[in-house]
Design goal:
This protein has 455 residues and is of the alpha/beta class. It has three domains: 159 residues, P-loop containing nucleotide triphosphate hydrolases (Rossmann fold); 175 residues, 3-Layer(aba) Sandwich (Rossmann fold), CATH 3.40.50.300; 78 residues, 2-Layer Sandwich (GMP Synthetase, Chain A, domain 3), CATH 3.30.300. It is 32% helix and 21% strand.
Length: 455
């Protein structure tokens, strides 16, 4: 992103450690924004400590990629690699201890978790490769390491970066720049404006901030970098990011455009709310739906904005048709906020920010365990899971371990045999019962740890 200002504090040193092949170099590359570290499926590719400047949202830090921790004979190459990793731990201000959620906790994980614990450094536990249902379930095994709550992440797909940001934030000083708010104020609301080329993103940004901050014009593709702008709305700090237009992948040939697209996608990953801007005269084209689906898969709060509303005739019918099309074409975010506006005239722009605030509130919403289990009990009475091969699927209880987006876990037996239609039924029930319109709800299943519970 452009317009990065240097931090007014010494950069903390963050070390990524763990046994070989858990994805340390992949996370390193993602945080530095470049492929500085070689990545391969074979363990042991990384040997030396590799340092770069990492960024996550508004946090800047030095980050070190290390060799995989493994047992080795004294004096061997592997032992010297381990010494390098141990030195990185000693020098680090923060340690990211990474495990493989798909493989579960291994003897080496346990051994080296003890080594990290003895170093008396702040530790953030990451359960990597948690993008699948099995991976998320496996991430809970990492609780046994005694390093705190594991954060399910996917370094390869960029999932869980919002939670990693939240875990790192307390280790950084509050901004002390004279233009910043007093310490203790809430962090700025991070909003990304995305869409196809020439949808009017830069015009909308200029209208929101009240100045010609972004270059605009009739030509598509004027914006190349993702540009971050700090401003205030209703006394609330906002960090607004204007991005390059996203075309279909097959049409992106120019190298510079590829970099711009990658920057725009990275802005989605770091945002809390993403406004997908559509041209109201030709909305819901295939690329619009692909962008909205990407936002949902990244777990960001979503607002759909219909720009150029001043050019639309018969607005009442058009609004009704667009609402129906949105819920039909994007059922995974049913009920998402839909706002008609004109960046050119300013019509509807304040409604957009109200919709952003509402979507952000839903994205952060938590449901009590008691309320969840009352809901689950009612669901099972009205519509129990179908039997599979003559055997009942039992759903025992539910909980919400985290929000941003709302993430629910249901414990039971033979849950892997639940049909997709029943999982969708549960998700829709959660959305309707707990008023979660538009939220990209995450639902996973786990088997209780009781070895005597055979269902």
């Amino acid at each position: 992103m452009t317009e990065q200002t240097p931090p007014a504090y010494p950069l903390p040193l963050v070390a990524i450690v763990g046994r070989p092949n858990v994805g340390k170099s992949t996370l390193f590359n993602r945080l530095v924004g470049k492929r500085l570290a070689l990545v391969d499926d074979r363990p042991g590719v990384t040997r030396d400590r590799r340092e770069g400047e990492g960024r996550l949202g508004d946090l800047t830090f030095r980050i070190v990629d290390t060799a995989g921790l493994e047992s080795a004979a004294e004096g061997s190459l592997e032992a010297r690699m381990r010494q390098q990793t141990e030195a990185a731990i000693e020098e680090a201000d923060i340690v990211l201890f990474m495990t493989d959620a798909r493989a579960g906790v291994t003897a080496d994980d346990i051994r080296f978790a003890d080594l990290v614990r003895r170093a008396h450094r702040p530790v953030i536990l990451l359960a990597n490769k948690a993008e699948s249902r099995a991976g998320v379930a496996g991430s809970y095994e990492a609780y046994s390491l005694g390093l705190g709550d594991p954060l399910p992440v996917s370094a390869e797909h960029g999932e869980g970066l919002g939670e990693l940001y939240d875990a790192l934030r307390p280790f950084f000083p509050e901004p002390s720049d004279e233009d910043e708010d007093e310490p203790g104020e809430d962090a700025p609301l991070r909003i990304a404006i995305v869409g196809r080329p020439n949808a009017g993103k830069s015009t909308l940004v200029n209208r929101l901030v009240g100045s010609e901050r972004m270059l605009t014009g009739p030509e598509a593709g004027i914006t190349r970098d993702s540009v971050s702008i700090d401003w205030e709305w209703n006394d609330r700090r906002v960090r607004l990011v204007d991005t390059a237009g996203l075309r279909r992948k097959a049409r992106v040939i120019d190298k510079l455009e590829k970099l711009s697209v990658a920057d725009a996608i990275r802005s989605i990953k770091f945002a809390e709310v993403v406004v997908v801007l559509l041209d109201a005269t030709m909305p819901f084209e295939k690329q619009d739906l692909s962008i909205a689906d990407l936002v949902a898969r990244e777990g960001r709060a979503l607002v759909i904005a219909l720009n150029k509303w001043d050019l639309v005739e018969n607005r009442g019918q058009a609004q009704k048709d667009h609402r129906e099309a949105l819920d039909r074409l994007l059922p995974q975010v049913k009920g998402a906020q839909l706002v008609a506006l004109s960046g050119q005239t300013g019509e509807g722009v304040d409604r957009l920010m109200q919709a952003v605030a509402a979507a952000h509130e839903v994205w952060n919403r938590r449901v009590s365990t008691a309320a969840l289990n009352r809901w689950l009990e009612g669901v099972l009475e009205r519509h129990p899971p179908p039997a599979v091969a003559g055997k009942r699927i039992k759903l025992r209880y539910a909980t919400q371990p985290k929000a941003r987006p709302p993430f629910f876990v249901i414990f039971g037996t033979r849950t892997e045999e639940l049909p997709d239609s029943y999982v969708r039924y549960l998700v829709n029930g959660l959305r309707e019962t707990f008023d979660l319109p538009g939220a990209p709800i995450r639902l996973t299943f786990r088997t209780p740890d009781n070895p005597y519970d055979k269902g």
